[in-house]
Task: structure prediction
Amino acid sequence: MVKLNSLQEWNSLYSEGKHLSIWPWSDLVSYVRRYATISNGKKIKILELGCGAGANIPFLTSLNAEYYGIDGSNYIIKKLKKQYPKLKNRLISLDFTKKIPYKQQFDIVVDRASLTHNTTYAIKKCLNLVHSKMKPGGIHIGIDWFSTLHSDYTIGKFIKKNDLFTKTGFLSGQFIGVGKVHFSDKKHLLDLFKKYNINILEQKIIKSEIPKSNQVFSSWNLLATKND
Result:
């Protein structure tokens, strides 16, 4: 069994200038625009799990939204508070699989390839926490939850013997140095989101033909609503 502190790993990656995406993720923009934007003039509350370097903040705050962000990296949250001083009281550094301290109830919760860097147990715990923080009919948008069809699922080491979906210790491929990586198939996602209604579930499979590569990127995008 491999024991790692993922928060320390991401702190190190960010401080080394890695994974500092600054442009909104197109799939997240598409899902929010197509399925989740509330346009009746009402100010909505949005929570982002794993806000990272803040790539999605400009887009999400443009939606007449009150934005809240959580990330495990204290380093990156300090940077975001300097960059977005108006949000300093709505940006928190902590492990969101253990606690979501905001008292607010959220209309939309978004997560782009963030929850998928945890174990099955931690993901289930977090999804229960998120469910309790969502308004009736609230929307959860998950982008790029890595699929078991991803070629990197066949490499790396299992975190625990009883968790066949979470791996670490990648020596090659996309996930070198990022700690835990969770891979899902359809059945597993339905089980993880059993307290929700999954309204949309799409799987992406991308393989480079020119130049030729054996690497296959595969992930899930989903939209789930709170099941009351």
Remarks:
- The CA atoms of residues 1 and 51 lie 29 Å apart.
- The mean pLDDT is 89.
